[in-house]
Amino acid sequence: MERALSDKKLIALFLVPGLTIFLIFYFVPILMTAYYSFQEWDGINPMAFVGLDNYTKMFTADKSFWKAVWNSVAFLLTGVFVQLPLSFGLALLVSRKMKGRKWFRNIYFFPVVMSTTMVSLLWVKIYDPNIGMLNTLLEAAHLGSWAQAWLGDTKTALLSVLIVTTWHYVGYNMLILFAGIQGISEQYYEAAKLDGAVGWKAVRYITLPLLSDVLRICVVLNVIYALKTFESVYVMTNGGPLHSTTMIALKMFQEAFLKQNFGYGSALAVFMVLECLIIAWVLNKVLTREKIEY
Amino acid sequence: MFGKKLGVVAASIALSSVVLSACGGANGNEGATQNQDAKPAEGKESVSLWMFDADPMYQAAAEATAAEVGVDLNYEYIQDETYKTKISVALAANELPDVFQQHAGKSYRTPVLQSKTVAPLNDTLDSTGLGAKFLDNQLVKEEDGNIYSVPSNISTTLVFYYNKKLMSDLGATPPATWDDLQALVTKAEAKGIIPIALGGKERWQGDLLYNMLVARQDVNAFDNAIKGDAKFTDAPFVDAAKQVATLVSSNAFQKGFLGSAYLDAQELFKNDKALIWIDGSFNFGALSKAMGDNLGYIAFPKTGVEDVYSATIGFQNSAAPYSLFVNNSSKHVGKAKEFAIKLSLKLNDEFVRKGLPGYAASEVKSESQNEQLSAYATDISKTAKTQAMWFGLLSADTGQEYRDMTQQLYGGNLTPEEYTAQLETLLRSAE
């Protein structure tokens, strides 16, 4: 067995079937999408080569494209600067040796188990300005002036969707960070305690540095999720009102499957793939640092 | 064929790998499919059928037709919005069922015909003699002289429904003019009743309301403008856009209507929270069942210079009606053709039974109509013109752009003048 594992040719041979499947079902469609992005094509009639026209349209003529880019940035920033700190806070809380911590951990994680469609539909009902729970509660609390047309108003729609995605996925990051915290040896905290580092100081100087690798993974996952957000927006607002919540993935879907612009839809898909790759690469470069050991 | 199919499948995989996991839909049952996978009995041919009409009448008619034709039926109901996506991919990839329903309008019909995946029905219509049963002009003859579809729905039009209980609570009468409508909106709003429920999320209701307001300004405005004899910046279009802006500014629609789904908005009307509901005549049955005598109907008010019987807005046009098509790659194409034609006639019988004007001769007797439906039938018979909804006359791309633009009018992002100027540019360039 050991000899087999040291034989690189044999290992390569075993990798061939998986690699072939990966290339056929993942890499080839991406290449073909790149090819279609230079065509004008409705999916039925013959394609016509249009060069960079689809990309020119994307960057110069399609007003909602830049709105979608901005919305992606909003999702990205919320994921990294709101959701992640919240997750970290919750992970710290459920890491403490207190009664019912398992119960709390499960409660916080529960929304992650629910499908995005289900969560989105649930919140559509909660946000309903006419019969929804949120406005009813606000009115019952004599805060009727705070009641809004949450998903129906361009001023509040994006924020409303962001709140839902944060609520939905906060438990996911919490669980990853919780596992990371559990992996930090207790002796570091005991040694730090002798030096007077307790409470926030212990978090600042022990927990956070030793969690840096886990945090990096969480940041990358959050960013990629933010850039390709589709389901929650599709179900809750369909990109509206007036494109205020549109996303690149949603535009891609609408262009290709509703407007039958497969060429332009493919150009949007290529943009999204490149955007994800570049940002993930930059993040890896920026966040990579020497492993900390005490 | 293989290359194109491979291309579409590959494009769909690549494009949808990121998104399609969520095609579950924006409404409660969006994306839901109801698949009755019947195992074909020995020696019996099977026919698969895709439908987007939720009315149980369709499935019952299909099952009865299958029994009559002697085939096993694989009936699949696919929710309306999901259907539009699914059928466009299936068309391009030639992965169609044996028989399928298609929406009305050029943007939906043209791709079906261009895909060259549907079978001409002339031979079966002639050999069975069933072609003679369809009324004049109900079978669409395409440019090549072939008939590729049979109707799957009767002509449906825009209807102005109102809630009788709320109207009575307000001590008001249904509006006859634009001034009446404005006064009613003000009165309802003052009493905390939603004047008009509108599902803005899907955009089509607002779009059709605008079409209707334009038709009331000038019954031939759209036809003249699209032919180039007039402009979309002319008075009828601007005046109707101003009426939309007035309705929005006077809070005629429910709070957050731009984000409201059609079905959610409909619930407001059915549950006595909204006074007026603008919808299709296809919903008479469902609304009557839900609201009973509480459902009121009037011909759309005289909101412009044109009379109430001058025109209505139709959901389909004679060149692109709601249709049933047969896949020419079907293993049992002969049976599928016979099934589609007989299903169309069976559905016609059901419409006639309900007291609605059918598209084919029928021996079925009409059941008694309720008061509202009979009033509607009378009004429709008096109406001089059915203007096809504009969206149905545009290509898929232009149609979607047009609906986006109209939503901007409703959202206040465009003034009536800006909106009509952009309309002129969009529809003129698409001409």
TrEMBL record, chain A:
Entry keyword set: Cell membrane, Membrane, Transmembrane, Transmembrane helix, Transport
The record's InterPro entries line, in alphabetical order, gives: ABC_transporter_permease, MetI-like, MetI-like_sf
Residues crossing the lipid bilayer are 12-38, 73-95, 107-127, 157-181, 202-227, 262-283
Q: Does the keyword Cell cycle apply?
A: no
Membrane topology recorded in Swiss-Prot or TrEMBL: Multi-pass membrane protein
Where located? Cell membrane
Q: What Pfam families does UniProt report for this protein, alphabetically?
A: BPD_transp_1
Tell me the superkingdom of the source. Answer: Bacteria
Residue span, ABC transmembrane type-1 domain: 69-283
Matching CDD domains:
TM_PBP2
Q: What is this protein called?
A: Raffinose/stachyose/melibiose transport system permease protein
Q: Which organism is it from?
A: Paenibacillus silagei
Protein family (similarity comment): Belongs to the binding-protein-dependent transport system permease family.
Automatic annotation (TrEMBL), chain B:
PANTHER family to which the protein is assigned, alphabetical? ARABINOSE-BINDING PROTEIN-RELATED, BLR3389 PROTEIN
Indicate the secretion signal residues. 1-21
User: Has UniProt tagged this entry with the keyword Ribosomal protein?
Assistant: no
What are the protein's UniProt keywords? Signal
Q: Which PROSITE patterns match?
A: PROKAR_LIPOPROTEIN (PS51257)
| Gene3D superfamilies named among the record's database cross-references | Periplasmic binding protein-like II (3.40.190.10)
Question: What's the protein here called?
Answer: Raffinose/stachyose/melibiose transport system substrate-binding protein
